[in-house]
Structures are given as structure tokens and as C-alpha cells.
Amino acid sequence: MKKLLTILIAFFLLLCALPAMAEGTLKAAAEAIQAATTLDEQLAALSEISAEDAAELEDAQRAAELNVAPAGELPAELIPNVDDAEKADGLPETLRDARFIVVRDDFETDGSLLLMRRALSGSFLARLPEANRARSLAEADAVLYITESYQKRGDYIGTAYNRVYTLYAKALDSGKVWQIAGTTTTPPQSGFGVLAGARLAWGSLWKRFEPAILNVPLVVEYPEGTASFRVTDGGCCMIGLEGEFTRFEVPAEVEGRTVVGIEKIKSSDLVELILPEGLEWIEGRNAIECQFLKHIQFPSTLRRITGEDVFWYTPWPGHPLDTLDFNEGLEEIGEDSLYGSRDIRSITLPSTLRSLDTGFLKNGLGCSWVALPDGLEKLPGQFLSTSGYVACVFMPASITDFAMNALNEGFIYVYTPEGSPASQWAEERGIAWRPCDSADDMPKPEIQREGDYEYLILDGEAVLLKYYGKEAEVTVPAALGGAPVAVIKSAAFTRLNENNFWDGIRALRLPDTVKLIEAGCVANMKYLEALYIPGAVERCVGAPISECPECTVYAPAASPVKVACESGNIPWADLESN
Fold first, then answer.
1. I need a surface site. Which of 169, 170, 294, 417 has the fewest CB within 10 A?
2. Sign (positive/negative) of CA torsion 67, 68, 71, 73?
């Protein structure tokens, strides 16, 4: 027992001594480099400090501050003209095997003056692989150039600045310059005097820039193929999937790095995708491009989804991914990240969602309702621009900011607490709304099928959603599910696909029970000759046909259909005289 106690005490004393040991090693290294009399001597000394040593120093809670003033003037060729820099996503391929000198260019304070300061950045050079560290000017192929600057904020009452770090690479033989990375720290929300973003320790800055410098894919092999990952700040992200996977479970960790993001998964075989706990973001245009994907499992750690059309789908024969159950914890869905489609028959938005950007569900859904979560403050632009099957939307009282082009003017009811900003907004826009305290109390009409017609029933009236038949002459029944057909939704009648063999409808007659017609309820009917719309119509939101070059619309002269056709330059004829 006494021996064990002695060992524990010795171990504790060693732990306490580590910071002092690391600080002493760091000081000795910096002093030796600074004592060198030529730039070549400094570079040789810097290259001796391995990335492992730098990591050990940081583990001992000391930043590896090995940035030193150059011995003499830095040669002009080491200072790139950043105004001519070409933007690049990481280090260009031509510089992957180059030997580098690393120069930092930032500011220091001298009284009230802000002075430019250039130094050799040993803190970065020590972390480069040995093959990429230049030991002399003659050996150098390229320069990594780090700048620190300030960007004034216009949204503060007082004076405030972002602190901006930018990383450039310059090829010494051609003189070409690339801007390969950047990061920003923002000022605190409040305080006294001039506010500025925090200055990053060089260890922290390296972690932010490391992916751009060491952008070598990590590859994991499976019996079915391979998965590729890219190093990022705080871990790595998935960038590719090769092989014949029908089910793939993204690993939580690759080579000791947490998988924090998805940048690209493309597969023509994948049916089921499981995302790991620890994953924080999905980002990129068509990030998940899997046209036969049926199921995707989101982790509780997912916080943001950004990029254009993240869940890419093939419109025909139909995307099997028809359910999106987003996790509690998700906070942001970015601009045009989720267009929506009629293939999506169920969507769950978490209570933690706080930001929806322009284009969210602008193509609508294949389900009858959508509930926006309490806590959301802004209704985005192009929200349900084409509502699809959606007839009911719950808007909580927390929404106070409404984009001008949010929500179409077709058939849709807004359910919201009485007196809420959403109720006032709907009143001003002429949008039908109903008092409703919570999403649980909102109607959720079931989508039904009768013969060739898909429909839902709301307030005792049938809403025609889709016609699936292939008859040349079609007469829509006056009732579906025992309820009068009162609404014809957009694209209810449309060709199934450009490549099918159905010539389409030649004549289409709507019943006299119809009260409202959405724009483009008949679309892409190449051979349609006549659309008959009787006089019961009370409202026609836009031209009733779209891309029907041979069609004439027949409606009474007093019908709003005539006005809509004239506004859309659609051929019209008086139904009563024909």
C-alpha cells in the first residue's frame, strides 16, 4: 500500500511539472530560433520542431508560440499580392508536395498606433509534415501567408469589429497566389469601449486552417466499397461513397476524428442511411444524392442543414424517401436547402428549430398539413409558393416577421392562436385563417384515393389533388368520398412523365361544384384541346392551364376564369354559347 501511495504521489508531481517543462522547452526553442543570425538558420531550426512536439506542448496547456521575427528583411518574393489571389477550396493540387515557408502578417499595438508586423510562423511550420517544411530559402517551393485584419460591424450602437484571419498560398516559381481559407471571430454582444472579436491562439487557428492545408482524404474500406472523409475543424466530414451499398451506417469516428458533417453522399444503390451521433451538420448542394433512398435516420446532435437542395431526388418514377423526421436539436434549415416535393408524405419539424431560410418547402409537400414549431420567429420567403397537397398550416404566436412572398394565394388555411401576429398578417393578406391554440388542435385531413382520383376532405368539401387516369376524355365527378368537389389544386392534371407513352387528355370537364381553382391545375398536357369550367367558380388563382399549347378554356363570360385567362394570355371561349 505504501509503495502504491509513493507511485501515485510521484505521478501527481509529474503532472504538475508538465506545464513548467513544456514552458521551458518552448522558451528554449524560441530563444534558439531568435538567436540565429540568418533566415536560413532560422528555417533550419524551425524545421527541427516536429508536429508531435507542438502537440505535446499544447497538451501541457501552453500554446506553441513559435512565431519569431525574421533575421533581417524578408525577401519580397515571400510576400504575396493578396489582391490578385484566386479563391480555392483548400491547397491546390500543384502545391500538395511543396516545401513551405510560413509567414504571418498581423498587427501589434504601440500606444495608440496599430503597426503591421511580419514574422516567421513556427507555430504553423512545426505542424506541417516533415516533407512540407522548407529548411532554407533555396529549398522553398511556396509560401503560406496568414493575415489578421479587422472588419467594421454596422449593426452595433458603438464601434465594433470582427477579427478576420485569412490564409493564402503562393507558388514561388510562378508567383500565383490562392486564397485557401478564412475564419472570423465576432465581438461580444455588449461591453464598453471598442469591441472586437477574440484573438485566436495559434493552436486554435491551426485547427481552423488545418483542413485547407492538409486536405488529404481519409478513406475507410468496406466489403461493398469505400467511404471518403475530409479533415475539418473539430473532426472530419464525409465527402464520398463508392461501391454497391444498399445500407450504410456513417461511422462516428475516422482515425480518431469525430465525423461532424456530411458534404456529399452520392449513390444509385443506397436504400437506408444511418447518420451517427456526433454529426452536427449536413452542408452542400445535393449533399445527399441518393435517388432510391427510402429511409434516413437523423442523430440527436444534428444542428444545421444548409446548401441547395440537400436531399436531391429524381422526380420520376418517384423518390421513395417520403418521410422526413428531423431530430430534436436541429436549429437551422438554410436557403433552398429543402425545396419540398409531392413525394414527401410526412415531415416532422422539431421544437428546437429556430431558423428557416428562403425557399423552405417552396414546392410544397405530398401531405395535407405542416406545423411550424413554437419559438420560430420568421416565416421565410417562398414558403409553400406552390403548396402541393398542403391545405393546413399551423403558425405559432412566436412568428412575428413575415416575408412578403411567403405562402401562395391558393387554397390553404392558416391555423394560429387568436390575436397572434400570424392572424393579423393573414387578415391583411386575405388568407383564410382559423383560431387554433396548438398544432395538436389543427385538422390533419387524410389523403384518400377513389378510382383515379386522389383527394382530401376539409370542412365537408373535397379537394382534388391528383388524377392518375389515362382517359382521353375526362369528366371529374361532382363528389369524392361523399363530399362535393370544391377545390382543384395546382398540377392536379399533368402528364406523368416526358418519356411515358400516354398521349394525355384531349378534353377535360370540371363539375359545377368547383368553387376555387389554383394556378396551373392543368399542366404539361401537350394534346389537350378543351378545358370546360362551369359557372360555379368563385375564385381562380392565376391561369388555370400551363404548357398546354393546343388548349382553349371554356367558361362563362361572368366567371373569374375568363379574367385569369385574359391575364395569362390563355385562349378563352364562352361556355354558354358553345
1. 294
2. positive
Please compute, for residue 291, the number of CA atoms within 13 A of its CA located in the half-sphere on the CB side. 6
Is 128 in contact with 213 (CB distance < 8 Å)? Answer: yes
* Strand segments (E) across 298-410: 304-306, 311-312, 323-325, 332-333, 346-348, 355-356, 369-371, 378-379, 392-394, 401-402
Q: Do domains 217-321 and 451-577 have the same CATH topology?
A: yes
CA distance 75 to 118: 12
Q: Which residue type does 470 have? A: K
Kindly tell me the burial class for residue 329, based on how many C-beta atoms sit within 10 Å of its own C-beta (0-12, 13-18, 19 or more): middle
CATH of domain 451-577: 3.80.10
Exposure class string for 169-208: b at 16+ Cβ within 10 A, else e:
bbbbeeebbbbbbebeeebeeeeeeebbbeebebbbbbbb
Residue 436: all three cell numbers together: 387554433
pTM score, whole prediction: 0.67
Please say whether the beta carbons of 535 and 512 come within 8 A. yes
pLDDT per position as a tens digit, 235-280: 889 999 999 999 999 999 998 889 999 999 999 999 999 999 999 9
Whole-angstrom Cα distance, residue 165 to residue 149? 7
SS (H, E, C) 457-473: EECCEEEEEEECCCCCE
User: For residues 504 and 498, what is the distance between their CA atoms, to the nearest angstrom?
Assistant: 11
Q: In the sheet that 265-266 helps form, which strands lie side by side, from edge to edge?
A: 265-266, 288-289, 311-312
Residue pLDDT, tens place only, 333-367: 999 999 998 889 999 999 999 999 999 999 999 99
Nearest to 365 by CA among 351, 385, 335: 385
φ and ψ at residue 339, rounded to 5 degrees: -65, -30
The three cell numbers of residue 120 are 516567421
CA–CA separation, 140 and 134 (whole Å): 5
Alpha helices in 172-293 (DSSP H): 202-213
Average pLDDT over residues 369-391: 95
N- to C-terminal Cα separation, the chain: 108
* Nearest-angstrom CA–CA distance, 435 and 392: 12
Helix residue ranges per DSSP H, 198-237: 202-213
Domain boundaries, the chain: 24-212, 217-321, 339-444, 451-577
Q: How far apart are CA 164 and CA 175, in angstroms?
A: 24
Cα 250 vs. chain centroid, distance in angstroms? 19
Cell of 342: 409531392
| Total residue length of the chain | 578
CATH code of the region 217-321: 3.80.10.10
